[in-house]
Amino acid sequence: MNTTPAVEELAGLSATTLLRFATAGSVDDGKSTLVGRLLHDSKSVLVDQLEAVEHASRSRGAAEPDLALLTDGLRAEREQGITIDVAYRYFATPRRRFILADTPGHVQYTRNMVTGASTADLAVVLVDARNGVIEQTRRHAAVAALLRVPHVVLAVNKMDLVDYEEATFARIAEEFTAYAGELGVPEITAIPISALAGDNVVEPSANMDWYGGPTVLEHLETVPVSHDLTGCHARLPVQYVIRPQTAEHPDYRGYAGQIAAGTFRVGESVTVLPSGRTSKVAGIDLLGTPVDVAWTPQSVTLLLEDDIDISRGDLIVPSHDAPATSQDVEATVCHVADTPLTVGQRVLLKHTTRTVKAIVKEIPSRLTLDDLSQHPSPGQLVANDIGRVKVRLAEALAIDTYADSRRTGSFLLIDPADGTTLAAGMAGESFATAEATSSVEDEDGWDF
What we know:
The strands form 5 sheets. Strands 7, 8, 9, 11, 12, 13, 15 and 16 form an 8-stranded antiparallel beta sheet that branches. This protein has a 6-stranded mixed beta sheet with strand order 2-3-1-4-5-6, sandwiched between helices. It has a 6-stranded antiparallel beta barrel with strand order 17-23-20-19-24-25. A hairpin with a 6-residue loop joins β20 and β21 (374-376). The chain is of the alpha+beta class. The chain has 8 helices and 25 strands.
């Protein structure tokens, strides 16, 4: 079967031309200024945007344009001079396209950093050269490691305020690298910068001739990034069952969704989970056109040879590579809600397109950021805590380990009362090492 021009065009888009990255750091480390400088100096700002920033800066009494205003778009952000929400920006250079997530620095907004970094290929962690590595820096490094962000850039900002001292940069870089290395961050690149003055952001700095590495933009343009998930375990979470029942398509039954990982082919034997029923792929529709093969992250409709009871939330996988299903999940979570997560608590667990009832059976440990030790059996996790949890599900799910698949190894814990997101979970092993042996019995009726 010949592929259509639309399909060929999709296949021709090299995934390495796109880099998703997130910025993180403590309050007033200069994240928004760095992003503004990056956009401004790479000529990715429209004239009217720049004029609006210049006007807003003058109204605040600033002599020079405040480039942070290019990303701090909310009124509360402008008034307080802080970042509150995750600001997504899209820009491009001749060498690469970028999707940038500028995340807040306040401790209470760490949950936003989890959101911004969850799909990132690279994280830029800013540090104020005057303050060095602080607790929030360690928290952001831990989140980046937990989310398995493959590349981390340490941007030591405000070097102009420490007279561009090489020793200051070297000390901070050594401390952060040692800490992130213990967390298992695979690659760390340290760059001394001044976002306000533009040193080493887009153009090399004349004030730091002792530094011979890349600028921030040069590193972003050249860092090797692979989005090739076609060799991973193939997974298609079903989002919708298509049955038009029209005169033209009286018997059409298709299962639509976005391929989370791997590749599906016509004629391949597949298994539907959690039921375990098997069939073969009779056809694949992509952009309304039949194709022989489809791969992540394409949105497709699969047609099967057999009529099987399939609904939203089911998972279609190759029969030879079907994951085990289980009602018990052990994972590391980032707690993002203001209310604590406690042992015995009833929750909803959302995994891909499926949501099931669950109970928190155990909280074996909480991570101590200072020395990366595990505090055993804390009983609860509060906002911004990172810890291990054991959850019992009402229905068996096929959850991969997060190390194998960021898409199908992650989940959310949700408050069933009001729909609030409680925690973001990563199944399987992480940098957490503590194991607990205590057990908890539930007395609230949700005993699965």
